[in-house]
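ok new one. same drill as before - structure tokens go in, u give me an amino acid for every spot. 149 of them this time. try not to just spam alanines like last time pls lmao
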């Protein structure tokens, strides 16, 4: 596997994992989470959450990773919650600018929750061009934010 989390995420996506799975697996070992666990817990978040063309899996995966890094484990730890929210909101704002949206249907310009939309997406090549690029770019952004926090 490649060296940087972005390279790992891109390679995992090329293997056939979803965007969410690719991002979470690329960072999981840093937080002591086995790759198998990371792959399982992020499965439902691909293709805009269960193929519904909602929030991009890169964003969903990044939020899971931010939670692994800074999420609270004690209900009264509002500082951890606030830090997680702040980093998550910064990621979402910057990723939205980068991807021109947060939802798959907006980013891809087609509603992949429908059979016709999925076929249009395949025919246009977005799964081969747009998605891998965003997996890498989103992972680089996440790495930057984690490095600062």
């Amino acid at each position: 596997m490649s060296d940087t989390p972005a390279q790992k995420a891109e390679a995992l996506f090329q293997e056939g994992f979803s965007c969410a799975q690719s991002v979470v697996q690329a960072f999981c070992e840093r937080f002591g989470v086995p790759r198998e666990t990371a792959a399982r817990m992020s499965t439902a978040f691909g293709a805009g959450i269960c193929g519904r063309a909602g929030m991009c899996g890169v964003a969903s995966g990044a939020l899971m990773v931010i939670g692994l890094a800074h999420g609270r484990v004690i209900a009264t730890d509002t500082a951890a919650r606030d830090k997680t929210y702040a980093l998550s909101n910064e990621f979402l704002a910057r990723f939205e600018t980068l991807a021109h949206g947060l939802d798959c249907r907006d980013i891809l310009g087609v509603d992949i929750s429908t059979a016709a939309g999925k076929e249009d997406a395949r025919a246009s090549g977005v799964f081969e061009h747009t998605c891998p690029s965003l997996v890498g770019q989103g992972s680089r952004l996440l790495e930057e934010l984690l490095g600062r926090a």
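Residues 105 and 111 are 5 Å apart (CA to CA). and btw The mean pLDDT is 96.
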